[in-house]
Amino acid sequence: MALLKHTKDRGDLRIRDNVDDLGIELAEYIAELSEASVKERGVFAIALSGGSLITLMGKLCEAPYKKTVDWAKWYIYWADERVVGKNHVDSNYKLAKDGLLSKMPVIPSHLHSINDSLSAEDAASDYEFDLRQLVKARTVAVSEVSDCPKFDLILLGMGSDGHVASLFPNHMALDEKDEWVTFITDSPEPPPERITFTLPVINSASNVAVVVTGAGKAEALRLAVDDVEPDSPVIPGRMVDPTNGKLVWFVDTAAASKLEGFQFADLDQPFA
Ligand SMILES: O=C(O)[C@H](O)[C@@H](O)[C@H](O)[C@H](O)COP(=O)(O)O
């Protein structure tokens, strides 16, 4: 069963009562954006994250998408990456490659992963340099209001602490305004060294989708989306706020359970 909630200013919520249906919804959404972007710009520039998002995207490797999506036009970045070898079990590149990208006819040279032989700091600068080349060539579009890249789609997960990409609560990386890609060496979740897109890049995208599932994330989702008490903590998920883009939350009913009005909602109707 499906439920759609339009919030005042926190985007749309697409709510499903099980992750299988949520995966179907997510695959359809990504395929539609890919088609629109290829029609408009000739390419589709997408950024992935790690975590459960990758499993949820699995439907894209199946019919009809495997044959209907124009995979050769995809240019793939990572919104965040752990600074480990590409074959390391913690690598977001490996997670996406094994679970997804190896099953899709994407072009290997269109996969923009980090240089895993560098330090976190150098890997971040190197990744930003790589991204600047694609923005220069307009393979990745550019924001009308800043010089930031304007991805066609950035896909994020959100932790139960409210982190998105590798932007953790109260971390100074959240304040980064100049760099497109920054690094951290003290991630509260292992591994400690990571690189991450900064908020200006995330918020310059044409579309941002955040996938949130499970009861353990219900409070974080409430803090990210609902009209909350003024003294509530401002978690990173709340700071995702595309300036000229569209924000969509893909959530299951467990994660939605603390949203205002949700307990009275009819799963087949939009709710206020
Ligand atoms: O590299 C990372 O750690 C991820 O990009 C991270 O931001 C992830 O998306 C969230 O932690 C949610 O992960 P789950 O969906 O697995 O909880």
From TrEMBL:
Could you list this entry's UniProt keywords, alphabetically sorted: Hydrolase
What the entry lists under Pfam families is as follows: Glucosamine_iso (PF01182)
User: Where's the Glucosamine/galactosamine-6-phosphate isomerase domain?
Assistant: 20-249
Q: Name one GO molecular function term.
A: 6-phosphogluconolactonase activity
Q: Which cellular component terms (GO) are annotated to the entry?
A: cytoplasm
Q: What is its EC number?
A: 3.1.1.31
Q: Which pathway, metabolic or otherwise, does it act in?
A: Carbohydrate degradation; pentose phosphate pathway; D-ribulose 5-phosphate from D-glucose 6-phosphate (oxidative stage): step 2/3
Q: Which reaction does it catalyse?
A: 6-phospho-D-glucono-1,5-lactone + H2O = 6-phospho-D-gluconate + H(+)
Is this entry keyworded Hydrolase? Answer: yes
InterPro entries, sorted: 6-phosphogluconolactonase_DevB, 6PGL, Glc/Gal-6P_isomerase, NagB/RpiA_transferase-like
Q: Is the keyword ATP-binding assigned to this protein? A: no
Q: Which CDD domains match?
A: 6PGL (cd01400)
- Please name the top-level EC class of this enzyme: hydrolase
Q: What family is this protein classified in? A: Belongs to the glucosamine/galactosamine-6-phosphate isomerase family. 6-phosphogluconolactonase subfamily.
What PANTHER family does this protein's entry cite? 6-PHOSPHOGLUCONOLACTONASE, 6-PHOSPHOGLUCONOLACTONASE 1-RELATED
List the NCBIfam families hit by this protein, alphabetically.
Answer: pgl (TIGR01198)
Protein name from the UniProt record:
Probable 6-phosphogluconolactonase
